[in-house]
Design a protein that fits this description.
It comes from Exilibacterium tricleocarpae. This protein is of the alpha+beta class. It contains five helices and eight strands.
């Protein structure tokens, strides 16, 4: 674990660690996703997803610090680390930017964790010469709309699907 990319913060009396996700975190990622509410899964995966396959989880945990990056927020309870949030990006197929996502465990929402995770991801992206971050989200996702606004992102309707919004942030 790189101390330069690891933060420890207090949220409502809980010590929260924000650190890079790694391949060794596949079980934490599985538990995190499995515990999300149906609505949180719907917004994160733009549809109905209950569980991810091992291959999908491995892909999410495959971070190379150049083309794919993710930061995980966790707490330790009874000596066991538990993932409570994640922000990530991956370079898009055209190399024109990085698509990002952020997800926070239901019981940790509305505490500023999504903002902290995204600020960490944005800071990392800037220092790694990412020119643009963007996310495609469902238009009725009020939490994402609020977060995007708080982070100064631009919003536009997805020209291919009116039920979706594209949030973007130019970093250069």
């Amino acid at each position: 674990m790189d101390n330069e990319t690891t933060d420890r913060i207090d949220i409502e009396g809980h010590q929260v660690t924000i650190r890079p996700l790694s391949a060794a975190d596949i079980d934490l990622e599985r538990d995190f996703i499995d515990k999300l509410s149906a609505q949180s899964k719907h917004y994160r995966f733009l549809g109905g997803v209950n569980h991810l396959s091992t291959a999908q989880l491995k892909k999410l945990c495959d971070i190379d610090f150049d083309h794919r990056m993710a930061f995980m927020a966790s707490v330790t309870t009874h000596g066991r680390e538990e993932e409570i949030g994640v922000s990530r990006y991956a370079v898009d197929a055209g190399g024109n930017g990085c698509e990002f996502a952020v997800t926070v465990a239901d019981q940790w929402q509305h505490k500023g964790l999504g903002t902290l995770l995204m600020r960490k991801l944005i800071e990392f992206a800037r220092t790694h010469h990412v020119k643009r971050l963007y996310s495609i989200d469902l238009a009725d996702n009020a939490h994402m709309r609020q977060l995007a606004g708080d982070l100064g992102m631009q919003a536009e309707r997805d020209p291919e699907d009116a039920r979706q919004v594209i949030y973007s942030l130019v970093l250069e």
